[in-house]
Amino acid sequence: MVGEAEKNLLEGLDPEQRAAVQAPRGPVCVLAGAGTGKTRTITHRIAYLCHTGHVSAGQVLAVTFTNRAAGEMRTRLRALGIPAAQARTFHSAALRQLRYFWPRVVGDAPWDLIEGKLRLVGQAAHKVGAPTEVEVLRDLASEIEWAKASLVSPDDYPDAVRRRHRTPPVPAEQVVAVYQGYEKLKNRAKVLDFDDLLLHTAAVLEEHPQVAEEFHERYRCFVVDEYQDVTPLQQRVLDGWLGQRDDLTVVGDANQTIYSFAGASPRPLLEFTRRFPEASVVRLERDYRSTPQVVTLANQVISAARDRPAGSRLKLIGQRPAGPVPQFHEYDDEPAEAAAVAERIKDLVDAGTPLSEIAVLFRVNAQSEVFEQALTEAGIPYLVRGGERFFERQEVRQAMSVLRMASADAPEGELPDLVRKALERVGLTAEPPTGGSARERWESLLAIVELAEELTATLEGADLPRFVAELETRAAAQHPPTVEGVTLASLHASKGLEWDAVFLIGLVDGTLPIQFADGDEPAIEEERRLLYVGVTRAREHLWLSWSLSRSPGGRRHRRRCRFLYGLIPDDHPTARVVRRDNGHNHSKGPATKLSCRICGRSLVGTVATKLGRCTDCPSDVDEELLSKLRDWRMTRAKELKVPAYVVFTDATLMAIAEQRPTDTAGLVSISGIGAAKLNRFGEDVLALVNNGSAK
């Protein structure tokens, strides 16, 4: 018999949510799409199991990945009358358990927990002669975190990065030396980092049967939220918690896997029914967050994804009343794009949308500066989530200090050249780093150079002292009140959040997908999932925009994000795409879809788009040119000390050898060749195509 409390728990749930709540005790997998009410579902499931006597509240352990999500779960469980159920992050749960068992398994006082790695990583790097600049240390710390989360030891690290096509921040041998030195320093000081909490907890449960038995008596039922983000280390801890039992409920969505760079993997979610053949599987696809118009676009974005196991595919079904259609906008330059976004935000606010219900989302933090400026000029308060304001970033403060010193000497020369030369002292190089915090630092410094170019174009006689004064004025002005404001956030930082109105900005190839992902199919697909996450943050208003150049009057060489093809209505002004006919490129004329230059069919997939032909159509490759391109790529890769695919992927070389572009316009029409690669390699490639030899 179902009692009154149980009936109350089932009220207001849709049929699928009810099935998840009432699923029998044992392995349960809830595939929950964005906005489908997963938190409500799993908290009601916990309460239902407790009220029906399957488990006592004190024997429940629910884990998730952020303090905010764990706090929300605890609040809901209290409201459902289950305050004794534990809801924690993986690390919080492990810390609590480790402190309890430490005296028994180690014997001395518990080791202290360090808040950050940089100091010890810096000491280890210094000892082995590795770079010690702050941005490099951050990347090294992140690399150590990835290795530990992936259960990769120092000795196994070189082989692991080769197998996974991962680009280390420094040579792999140096990472190994820093990793080993860091672990020695940490153990000598008797301190733990956050990864150690999980490693030691797993070891205690695996190596001390009596401790494991006591823990297994304490907790009987486990729930894991956001299971698509679990790392191998977290899965190992979970296995230790479970022992031989199967009372486990997992909730996740493979479409929202966006943390692979940190070791997260959807594999445990995708293989759950293989591990537990008797598991109950429930699919939540009714989207209560977004309008049908937003839901339709989200489904279109993710339907183009490759290599999605059939059983994991979710197609959202909008449950809200109809709303406005998503808007697509193209602009000549970033300031124009930012100004238009600010103007649209003012319209939304005037129509009654609270500032706190509006978000501007971007792929990399360096994109925020021009939007911070536009919002400030429009008098719109904003908050930067998950990152510092542009003028508060360490590299920007260092740059301004260097420019102040340089302006005291008042050297002669063109302002942009003077700024670029001064910023070389704080890390601005001619070519961008491949990724990580070093790339973000480089992007911030480059943005300052572009501000100098903008001032030169708008103010006659602009010199270095005038530019420094302009920077200081901007820095002073961009401190809006820390009250209700528009949220500025990266796509990664937006995960788990939602707003009435979302602006997805800067959607150009080389930024989304990020340049260093090109040529790596899994990385490209993760970039597509980032766009999907961004789209599904919007409840009602959704704006997608991009600009063709960085600054006013700049060369309009950018191309909109490849993931937008097929999403923009054919009759929309921005729906034009490059049409390829007999090797000629056209950017005008009626809107068309990318089509095969050989058979005329619509192109499907990244490789086909790059080649300009269906993958099963015959290739018209110039074999001699392809051989020369490969030899040139090998030489350049050795010079730059990077893997060959970082220069150009095999598919890009094939596309060049087939399409034989004779000028810059033809070269950038090939997917995978953006501004940075054009500047770095364009002259050589065109020389090979036109003359048969690179300079």
Notes on the structure:
By secondary structure, the chain is α/β, with parallel strands linked by helices. Keywords: ATP-binding, Helicase, Hydrolase, Isomerase, Nucleotide-binding. InterPro entries: DExx_box_DNA_helicase_dom_sf, DNA_helicase_UvrD-like_C, DNA_helicase_UvrD/REP, HRDC-like_sf, HRDC_dom, HRDC_dom_sf, P-loop_NTPase, UvrD-like_ATP-bd. It catalyses: Couples ATP hydrolysis with the unwinding of duplex DNA by translocating in the 3'-5' direction; ATP + H2O = ADP + phosphate + H(+). It is an enzyme of class 5 (isomerase).
Largest sheet: 6 strands, parallel
Shape field: globular
- What would the average pLDDT be, to the nearest integer? 84
Main sheet: strand order = 3-2-6-7-1-8
Beta-strand portion reads 5-15%
Residue stretches low in confidence (pLDDT < 50, at least 5 long) are 478-483, 576-593
Distance between the termini: 83 Å
Number of helices: 28
**Main structural class:** alpha/beta
In angstroms, what is the radius of gyration?
27 Å
Percent helix range: 40-55%
Number of beta-strand segments: 18
